[in-house]
Amino acid sequence: MLDRPRTARTGWAIACLVLFGVLAIGVDQRWSWLVDVDVRGRSANTWAIEDRGLRDVLLLVEDLFAAVAMTIYTCVLVAALWAKNHRRAALWAGGVMLVTSLLTTGAKLTVGRARPDWQALEDVLDSKSFPSGHASSTAAFAGVVVVLVFMLVRRGAIRRVLSALAVLLAALVALDRVLLGRHYPSDIVAGALLGAAVVLVGLVVYSPLPRSHALGSEPLPQPLPSSKRLAVVLNPIKVEDVDVFKTTVIAMAREAGWRDPTWHLTTPEDSGTGQAAEASVAGAELVVVCGGDGTVREVCAELAGTGIPVGIIPAGTGNLLARNLDIPLYIRAAIDIALTGQDRAIDMVAVRGDRVSADPHGEPSDEVPGQFESHFMVMAGLGFDAAIMEGVNEDFKKKVGWLAYVLSALKSLMYPVTRVEISVDGGEWTKHRARTVVVGNVGYLQAGMPLLPDAAIDDGQLDVVLIYPQRFLSWIPVAVRVMAKRTRTDDTINRMTGRTVSIRAGSETPRQLDGDSIGPGRELHMECIHGRLLVRVPR
Fold it and tell me: Domains of the chain by range and CATH?
């Protein structure tokens, strides 16, 4: 709906308003065919009221979508959008619902139609009947939800399900009004048309899409002359429609003063390294990467030290680097920040470890046979954390997103205890028992979980946490301590900080870098390289 031309939305709005006007005239003039249709509501009402159980359900639906309830739902939605910094969407949604209410009231007073005389309930309504306020408000609310879903929800299957549920809910409320005898069928249709028309007109006169965050900011200084060369590294399986994505980026790039970008698509064989190198050699002054944490990691590692800033468009499941840099997950807002944001120098972590069985995502080390060298931007994990990544079903993840990680975590909660030795900054090795060891360049996981609350991505330090719940139920106090950011350390939760961290496990243990499993092994040696990479962040 948002990608349709304004003329199309205007045409649909006019069609809805014309049909609404025809119904209003028909009701006022008591057209015979319309009266015949409306009278059919009597038989539906008689059938529904005779069933006491159905009647109670219908009355509950009536209360759940009455004017007061819809006002509460609207306020909650507007507040949530405002809190998430979708200010234009919040104003648009609130405006649509307010205008719908005012127009419905005005139409009731203008037409002045009485309620059906077959209301067989104790609390008979005597207010005006045309159009149905329940129908107009729920239709408008359903339209608002559909627009917001298509604006903010990335997965097509989830968008379709949520949109269908919103429309079905509006249809249920409409049916409820007829079965209770509160309205004639024409009242319901007119209310739905009015609600839909207000949604469409709202889209014509005021876009809920966010404006560029740079509009209210001072222009950034340009230390060097710029030719505005832009390159985009895209993981094509992470966007629903590649052509639509390209069109959006090109349009926003032109608006921000950039040249049309060159496009570099990742492949199963090359997840971003080669594409980033091509963009660098071609003279790109900004490389925008769209993909999951794995693609972002490869592009960032290739461009580290080049001075070429990286704009991140999060399109994966975790998107931890974007979350920790306050880059929004809404794609248009992320594109805007990539094109108009300011550059920030962040740390990168070099990693080496033993190569045991599975082929890790890294380059073989010529200096030490049987080892690999790699890097990460977010976190490395050993034990339970890595077992979650190994246990995720990729096909299931494509359908449900982050819920696939939740299911894998539940299956891996009692991952066997691992005996590890840790050395920080070249110090002596200390022995520990843990179910998971996480080394982080950032502090927060999904849903804002502060696993490493003191970690900063530009402080030149690595933060380590060892977690050792002894029993299944011990995970509960562990979770409480993590969420509360408690600093106390003991055998259950231990923390360390240093520029270099080395870990040795007593047996082959699953390992992961930025959410990508690198196979089991016994060692990980990590070094934080301070200020190695430039990334685009909000101003």
Answer: 6-205 (no CATH), 230-340 (3.40.50.10330), 350-529 (2.60.200.40)
